Predict the 3D structure of the following.
Amino acid sequence: MTHDALVWPWMLFGILLALPSLPGTIELLLLTLGGILSPRRETDPKTTTPIGRIALLVPAHDEAEGIAQTVASLRACDPGDAGFEVVVIADNCTDDTAERARSAGARVLERHDLQRRGKGYALDFAFGILLEEPFDGFIVVDADTRVAPNLVTEQRRLMRRGAAAVQCGYRIDNPASSLRARLMGIAWMAFNVLRLRGRERWGLSVGILGNGFGLTRETLAAVPYEATSVVEDLEYHLRLVASGRRVVYAAATEVQTDAPMTRSGGASQRARWEGGRFRMIIDWSPRLLGRILAGERRLTEPLLELLLLPLAFHVLLLLVALVPPFGPTRIYALLGLTLVALHVLAAIRIGGGGWRDLLALATAPFYILWKLTILRAIGRASRTDAAWVRTERNDTEPKD
């Protein structure tokens, strides 16, 4: 058998193994470079949008334990020159979430529909009511969240400058509580800070993270919140970019939440997010690709972002690409793994992490192996009929 006859099969095998990770590698390169560059300077807008009173929406399902703290955090925000109202959506609650929210000073909308359950349905229900009232903007905050005092004023400022939608920074408040929480904190510094900064640097839509995002009345009227999957935030962002709208990064304000403290809570949360993301890849990749081929090049980055898998799975794809004895794909895989390392280090640097985060990275291989143990749960969450499940947050087990 000739040398060429031996090389061609390995070449084809190597290329086939490298291709699935290629869109993610391109996206990581784009966002890492954009994230470490200096932010663009704001320029004065040619016109301003009149944005007055804002509604702060808190979708809540059986959140009696912490809802009062969240409402208090929101009510402590600077109202600016137009004020705001805190509105809690008590969605299919079986506890006294509604009563505690009212006692804390929030307006409460109660919803009971056991057939259509989940955050997306709750938000669509609330928006249907509040769009009939004199609100010019809406900010969505999860029920286990603390917010920066300037959340309202900063998002209103950006909406007045013409932003159709806004996403602020989203961080973990308790990264030192366990090793798992610290690793999650690093991942969030990458996903919720560095990547948003990178997209904003290139003038791209930064995405919606489900917590701390704002929408104008005009945006909701044009693109109703008809997103009902288990990753309704990602689904709605895809609808926004498909409509030609961009989400702006509010880097000067943020929201914070605690990482799940239990193993089951962490596993269910990751399975829901990642399974839902795989569902969106299946549903939206053909649509975006078709429109790109039809000439809508602005949708190229949203497609690359959608095809960038969670870093653990992206690393596994690159490691698999190292297997075939074909030089070019091995070089690509090594460069891709180096880029992942640079991306994580840049996230720690830009996100304000420290040396303890660097030490925690030594356990990343075990975290990747743990991800493999929840593949079945991820598969279940990727089904079209997957149900939303509240994440456990109580510290009911020893810390790592």
In short: Residues 395-400 have pLDDT under 50 and may be disordered. The chain has two domains: 7-36+277-381, 54-265. The chain is about 50% helix and 10% strand. The first strand starts at residue 54 and ends at 60.
